[in-house]
Write a structure and sequence with these properties.
By secondary structure, the chain is of the alpha/beta class. The protein contains twelve helices and eight strands. Strands 1-8-7-6-5-4-3-2 form an eight-stranded parallel beta sheet, sandwiched between helices. Strand 4, helix 5 and strand 5 form a beta-alpha-beta unit. Helix 2 packs across helix 12, helix 10 crosses helix 11 and helix 10 runs antiparallel to helix 12.
Length: about 290
């Protein structure tokens, strides 16, 4: 069933574990998400950017939610942009939305987030917002420090906006890192002690297993992921079509599974889905959410 993220994340906060929030933009990736959630009996937050097949992802997710009512899954708009985009997500049936105004000054961030919270809550939809700014991995060394969340603003932001989850900037970055991730665990602990709502970590891919485990220990409940699943899934499809092998154990296993199958448009996505699922299951186990659905 589709649920709001507060149900999933409040349980994670109480239980001391993290929940994976993989981005999914098409039917194969959504299918991989449901397979992982069902295999491990884990809650999952399927996320989608408004600029990438938002309506299609919603319909596919709702289809699998009807097919597998035992799955505990939220459908979440990631990095919601223009107001109209967020309204589209609400009309599509997203059970959670993020409004990202992290590049605005504090007062404007609060004002725009509060407006969306009022509308979404009236529809039974939960809201995530970001304070501080998580940049891109290609600019990591240049932007890391300037985007960090300020302790003194976090509590006030939550109180003034009424958000259900707060994304914080503590040293991670989106995409592939240019440089080595350096996380501010003390800052994260302090923020977790100041705000009552669940905390979100953007830029989980490439951050490293030990760093992610420590983030959960320090107060993170939701971890966003994409690159660490999507890139090897794409590599697996390429290997399959070219008849090549791979040193990656998950890719090799998927290639063995589909060995002898026709190399065509129908089968290649199945190979990608298998790898996507395997990589996602790794993170579900790492975060401790297996068996929590």
């Amino acid at each position: 069933m589709l649920v709001a993220i507060d149900k999933i994340l409040n349980a994670a906060k109480k239980g001391g574990y993290g929940v994976a929030a993989p981005d999914a933009y098409n039917s194969p990736s959504v299918q991989g998400c449901f397979q992982a959630a069902l295999n491990l009996k884990a809650p999952l937050i399927i996320s989608c950017l408004g600029t990438t097949n938002m309506e299609e992802t919603a319909e596919v997710t709702k289809f699998y939610a009807r097919k597998h009512p035992e799955a505990v899954v939220a459908l979440h708009l990631d990095h919601g942009g223009p107001f109209e985009e967020i309204m589209r997500a609400l009309r599509c049936g997203y059970s959670s939305v993020m409004i990202d105004r992290s590049k605005l000054v504090f007062e404007e961030n609060v004002r725009e987030v509060r407006e969306v919270v009022k509308i979404a809550h009236a529809m039974g939809v939960t809201v995530e917002a970001e304070l501080g700014h998580v940049g891109t991995g290609s600019e990591y060394e240049e932007t890391r420090d300037s985007g960090l969340t300020h302790r003194e603003e976090a509590k006030r932001f939550v109180e003034e906006t009424g958000v259900d989850a707060l994304a914080v900037a503590v040293g991670t970055s989106h995409g592939v890192y240019k440089g080595t991730p350096r996380l501010e665990f003390d800052l994260l602990r302090d923020i977790a002690g100041l705000v009552p709502v669940p905390l979100v970590l953007h830029g989980g891919s490439g951050t490293g297993d030990e760093n992610l485990k420590k983030c959960i220990e320090c107060g993170i409940q939701k971890i966003n992921l994409f690159t660490d699943m999507a890139d090897p899934a794409g590599e697996a499809m390429a290997c399959f079509m070219r008849g090549e092998s791979s040193d990656d154990a998950d890719i090799a296993a998927a290639l063995d599974m589909y060995a002898g199958k026709k190399k065509n448009f129908n089968v290649a996505p199945m190979v990608g889905t298998e790898v996507y699922r395997r990589k996602l299951e790794h993170y579900i186990r790492l975060f401790g959410s297996d068996g929590k659905a």
